[in-house]
């Protein structure tokens, strides 16, 4: 008999919770649907209506330089804080603890450098894209190559940011993934095509408000869902005893993705390249009223980014603590689990599930005495042992699912926070939290396709098409390019399930290209005697070396940013002094 899944949202006596039941489809309470659809409809329609009349490229891609510092700050934050941040990061913390926070340690330093050197040049030159500056400094080849690297990297990343919330809708409604990807992509395209940068910036204010309220309420309810006698400090102590509060790792291991050194050095160069040279971010602050507004917006992010990421990771750690006192699924991808069980003719998954439930019962029996375990190493070891056995059995389940039905996604870390939302939050808040994830996806994706269209229009179409554009035809062409990039992002999203963890996938993609791009800009800013041809050749070699290291080495991906940047700087200097001359620097 086929077994599928039903999430039944029902109004009951307090606390109102979501109950996981076996059945065929998902039914969400009408209040949650109202909150979710109402929030998304307001954001989309507001963005379209307020910004539907754009008459110049300056308005469409720079917002007529009308943004004050807090609007710049919110737009920068909303662009980086995609749905992946709120969907995948808690799952990352659930599985791997807090050590991912080290990834952001270099970010404040990078933003200070951006404020000191990047912002004044871009704003005072009144460029539309960061890559315009490179032609003024070097030549058209260097400009085109770096712009092309950005288009490749950001185009792929835009697909992942659409895919992340599509997981939610496909899980909720048991729809094919391509349909949910289409829906989210179309919602973003509607107001981004119509309003350009102004629509992106204005809608991001509402989106950030939804995000902050929703995540704050989820955290509050999560704390109140822990055992009554467990205070916040106790929960952190318990999580630390289980190895989840691993905030700083001083081990100098180059193969380790997350330690203090990779965060400070690799994270610094990644953040410097992202905020200083990625057009999706550059477009946010060149729309500021002046240099001061742009700088204040970036410094706001320098102060708030690490605390925000710490809070999101801590949410994931508390979800882990919650499931040490409450039954957790053997596989968090619930529809995938039901699909695999239905195809399991030998009922091997059923036997594994029974073994898992026995381990769960043993674990829950041990965690009842958590207070004593904090002071008794022997009791804590019993808890750790049951958790280890639980994880080993989950790995066995994933291997078995992969054999039974290879089409089922076995990487379920991105479903952890979603599972908690669907099964533990009260009616109304479920819709709000889903709106949080959708809003984050829409804000970052809108910034990305707006930046992709701007780079394509300014750095390629206007330069190489041979056509003379009026303001009207420029805006019309830009809207068509925005639509085209939106469609391409939807196509790229179809392949996003090839990645292990979504937030890592985005940062890996960035690390493959950002180092080279940053190296070109650092040469432009600080090595005045190096000309275009040496820089162009150095950039090509550096990018090839980074890709080779990615394919054939165990080097942690954050180090690719330092590697690519250093190669461009060193090789361009060596080529220059060896007599490989190009166009003169300005």
Please characterize this protein's 3D structure.
The protein has 586 residues and is mostly helical. The protein has helices spanning 30-50, 57-62, 69-80, 83-96, 107-125, 130-137, 140-173, 177-224, 232-241, 260-277, 279-285, 291-322, 334-342, 348-367, 370-373, 377-404, 416-424, 429-464, 471-493, 502-526, 532-552, 559-577; strands spanning 5-9, 18-22. The chain has a two-stranded antiparallel ribbon. The protein is globular, with a radius of gyration of 25 Å. The model is unreliable at 1-26 (pLDDT under 50).
Q: Rg, please?
A: 25 Å
Oligomer classification: single chain
Rounded mean pLDDT score: 84
Number of beta-strand segments: 2
Low-confidence stretches: 1-26
Q: Kindly, what is the distance between the CA atoms of the first and last residues, rounded to a whole number of angstroms? A: 74 Å
What is this structure, in a nutshell?
By secondary structure, the protein is mainly α.
Annotate the secondary structure layout:
Blueprint (H helix, E strand, L loop, with lengths): L4 E5 L8 E5 L7 H21 L6 H6 L6 H12 L2 H14 L10 H19 L4 H8 L2 H34 L3 H48 L7 H10 L18 H18 L1 H7 L5 H32 L11 H9 L5 H20 L2 H4 L3 H28 L11 H9 L4 H36 L6 H23 L8 H25 L5 H21 L6 H19 L9
Helix pairs in contact: 1-8, 1-18, 3-8, 3-11, 3-12, 3-18, 4-7, 4-12, 4-18, 5-10, 5-12, 6-7, 7-8, 7-18, 7-19, 7-20, 7-21, 8-12, 8-18, 8-19, 9-12, 10-11, 10-20, 10-22, 11-18, 14-16, 18-19, 20-21, 20-22, 21-22
Key words describing this protein structure:
mainly alpha, two-stranded antiparallel ribbon, globular, 72% helix, 586 residues
């Amino acid at each position: 008999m086929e077994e599928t899944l039903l999430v039944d949202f029902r109004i009951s006596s307090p606390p109102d919770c979501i109950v996981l039941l076996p059945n065929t489809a998902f039914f969400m309470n009408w209040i949650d649907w109202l909150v979710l659809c109402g929030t998304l409809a307001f954001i989309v329609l507001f963005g379209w209506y307020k910004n539907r009349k754009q008459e110049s490229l300056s308005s469409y891609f720079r917002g007529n330089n009308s943004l004050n510092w807090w609007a710049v700050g919110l737009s920068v934050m909303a662009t980086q804080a995609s749905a992946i941040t709120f969907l995948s990061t808690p799952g990352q913390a659930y599985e791997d603890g807090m050590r991912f926070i080290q990834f952001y340690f270099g970010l404040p330093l990078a933003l200070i450098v951006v404020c000191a050197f990047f912002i004044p040049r871009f704003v005072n030159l009144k460029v539309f894209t960061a890559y315009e500056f490179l032609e003024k400094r070097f030549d058209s080849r260097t400009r085109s190559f770096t712009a092309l690297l950005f288009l490749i990297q950001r185009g792929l990343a835009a697909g992942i940011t659409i895919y992340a919330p599509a997981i939610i809708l496909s899980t909720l409604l048991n729809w094919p993934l391509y349909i949910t990807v289409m829906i989210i992509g179309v919602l973003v395209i509607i107001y981004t095509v119509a309003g350009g940068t102004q629509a992106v910036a204005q809608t991001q204010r509402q989106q950030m408000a939804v995000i902050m309220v929703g995540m704050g309420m989820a955290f509050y309810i999560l704390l109140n869902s822990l055992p009554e006698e467990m205070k916040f400090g106790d929960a952190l102590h318990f999580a630390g005893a289980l190895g989840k509060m691993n905030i700083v790792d001083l081990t100098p291991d180059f193969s380790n993705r997350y330690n203090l050194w990779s965060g400070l050095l690799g994270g610094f160069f990644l953040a410097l390249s992202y905020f200083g040279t990625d057009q999706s971010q550059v477009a946010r602050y060149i729309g500021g009223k002046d240099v001061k507004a742009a700088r204040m917006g970036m410094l706001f992010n320098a102060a708030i980014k690490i605390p925000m990421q710490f809070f999101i990771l801590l949410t994931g750690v508390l979800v882990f603590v919650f499931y040490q006192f409450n039954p957790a699924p053997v596989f968090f991808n619930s529809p995938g689990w039901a699909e695999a069980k239905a195809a399991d003719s030998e009922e091997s998954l059923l036997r594994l599930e029974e073994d898992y439930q026995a381990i769960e019962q043993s674990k829950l029996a041990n965690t009842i005495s958590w207070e004593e375990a904090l002071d008794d190493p022997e009791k804590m070891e019993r808890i750790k042992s049951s958790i280890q056995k639980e994880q080993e059995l989950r790995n066995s389940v994933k291997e078995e699912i992969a054999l039974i039905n290879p089409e089922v996604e076995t990487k379920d870390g991105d479903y952890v926070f979603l599972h908690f939302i669907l099964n533990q939050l009260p009616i109304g808040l479920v819709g709000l939290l889903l709106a949080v994830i959708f809003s984050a996806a829409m804000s970052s994706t809108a910034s990305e396709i707006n930046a992709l269209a701007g780079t394509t229009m300014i750095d390629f179409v206007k330069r190489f098409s041979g056509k003379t554009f009026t303001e009207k035809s420029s805006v019309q062409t830009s809207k068509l390019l925005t639509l085209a990039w939106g469609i391409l992002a939807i196509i790229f999203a179809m392949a996003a399930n090839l990645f292990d963890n979504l937030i890592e996938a985005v940062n890996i993609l960035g690390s493959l290209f950002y180092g080279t791009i940053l190296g070109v800009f650092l040469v432009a800013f600080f090595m005045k005697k190096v000309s275009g041809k040496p820089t162009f050749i150095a950039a090509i070699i550096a990018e090839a070396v980074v890709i080779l290291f990615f394919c054939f080495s165990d080097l942690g991906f954050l180090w690719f940013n330092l590697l690519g940047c250093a190669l461009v700087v060193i090789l361009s200097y060596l080529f220059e002094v060896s007599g490989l001359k190009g166009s003169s620097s300005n």
